[in-house]
Model the fold of this input.
Amino acid sequence: RRLYFDTHALVCLFEENGFTTQQSEVIVSALVKIMNTNLDMIYKDMVTKVQQEIALQQVMSHIGGVKKDMIILEKSEFSALRSENEKIKLELQQIKKQVMDEITKVRADNKLNLNLEKSRVKELHAQQDRALTQTDRKIDTEVADLKTMLETHKLDNIKYLAGSVFTCLTVALGFYRLWI
Done:
């Protein structure tokens, strides 16, 4: 191990300050032991450059594997989503076609029903018009019959009245002759 200070210079410094050579060497030896112990403890927690590079390579390899897995997963998920999307599109098109067919059927049924109702209403109006015309004709016929009957009774009454007047005149003339 390298020491990053000069131990001999430290011994000389202690000797200059009143320590004996033996005392200075013991102090420096104790300092070296303390530093070595500290360094051992520090080295236990530290990783060597080779170990760090191996760990880095392992991490990079693991990241590469995860990246490949992610790409494969992304592609498979994307293709699954794409196929699901295509299925949904096809289903939507089929549903849209069915809805359009149903709308067409409903429209056709409604038009047919509307035309049937129109023709029924027209037929009903025609029947009502015929019935009204027949009723008008019957009324006209009955009125004409009543007028004819009234005229007939009128003529009969005029005949009876004329006959009665002539009879009364004849009787009155007969009495007049008899009295004259």
The radius of gyration is 69 Å. The chain has a mean pLDDT of 90. Residues 47-178 form one domain. The first helix runs from residue 7 to 16.
